[in-house]
């Protein structure tokens, strides 16, 4: 496994991503304001808006880096844990680059998607595995100079699942925020049913009196 040294493309991508964070927060604020004006509860509007923007902003730069070509020919490593075992004798920089680079690819999606959508940990794990395998397949078929490794896919998926576990306290908050609106809708529906029933009873009583 070759080290992923930080080159100019990677550095510039990270600089641009950090520079655009204020714009991303502005987009999240605009989405939340639009949802609040539409009648959504304030907490739900903010959680969903931040989750949507965070999933995109945290994933696109890393996917862009993962889908760029490098110098050299493609390599294929399909034996699990071989590349990870090679890291045991590697230097600290290489270990950090390999582990952090692979763990964070789908971390933003794993962290934010279950906050936004009603997804369980099993669905997140399956989605992370499918996404990781797809990324490795695209690297091998479309790009050059990439090492396509089973261990990379495993670390990509594991990073998404770990991030989902880290955001689990917010899953409940996001779902609880939507409950008052649902309960209100049920109460309104129950009120309409009661009024209709009362009207029908009164009509039946009047008819009986006339007879």
Automatic annotation (TrEMBL):
<feature type="transmembrane region" description="Helical">
    <location>
        <begin position="46"/>
        <end position="67"/>
    </location>
</feature>
<keyword id="KW-0472">Membrane</keyword>
<dbReference type="InterPro" id="IPR006976">
    <property type="entry name" value="VanZ-like"/>
</dbReference>
<feature type="transmembrane region" description="Helical">
    <location>
        <begin position="12"/>
        <end position="34"/>
    </location>
</feature>
<feature type="transmembrane region" description="Helical">
    <location>
        <begin position="95"/>
        <end position="113"/>
    </location>
</feature>
<dbReference type="Pfam" id="PF04892">
    <property type="entry name" value="VanZ"/>
</dbReference>
<feature type="transmembrane region" description="Helical">
    <location>
        <begin position="153"/>
        <end position="171"/>
    </location>
</feature>
<feature type="domain" description="VanZ-like">
    <location>
        <begin position="74"/>
        <end position="166"/>
    </location>
</feature>
<protein>
    <submittedName>
        <fullName>VanZ family protein</fullName>
    </submittedName>
</protein>
<keyword id="KW-0812">Transmembrane</keyword>
<keyword id="KW-1133">Transmembrane helix</keyword>
<feature type="transmembrane region" description="Helical">
    <location>
        <begin position="120"/>
        <end position="141"/>
    </location>
</feature>
């Amino acid at each position: 496994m070759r080290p992923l040294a930080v080159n100019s493309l990677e550095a510039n991508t990270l600089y641009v991503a950090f520079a655009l964070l204020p714009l991303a927060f502005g987009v999240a604020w605009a989405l939340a304001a639009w949802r609040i004006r539409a009648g959504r509860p304030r907490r739900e509007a903010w959680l969903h808006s931040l989750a949507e923007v965070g999933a995109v902003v945290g994933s696109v730069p890393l996917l862009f880096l993962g889908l760029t070509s490098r110098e050299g020919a493609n390599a294929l490593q399909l034996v699990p844990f071989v590349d990870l075992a090679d890291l045991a004798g590697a230097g600290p920089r290489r270990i950090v680059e390999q582990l952090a680079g692979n763990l964070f690819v789908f971390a933003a999606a794993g962290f934010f998607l279950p906050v936004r959508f009603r997804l369980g940990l099993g669905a997140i794990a399956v989605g992370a595995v499918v996404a990781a395998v797809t990324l490795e397949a695209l690297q091998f078929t479309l790009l050059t100079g990439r090492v396509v490794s089973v261990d990379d896919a495993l670390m990509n998926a594991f990073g998404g699942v770990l991030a989902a576990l880290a955001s689990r306290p917010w899953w409940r908050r996001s779902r609880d925020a939507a409950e008052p609106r649902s309960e209100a809708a049920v109460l309104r529906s129950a009120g309409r049913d009661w009024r209709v029933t009362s009207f029908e009873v009164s009509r039946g009583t009047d008819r009986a009196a006339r007879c």
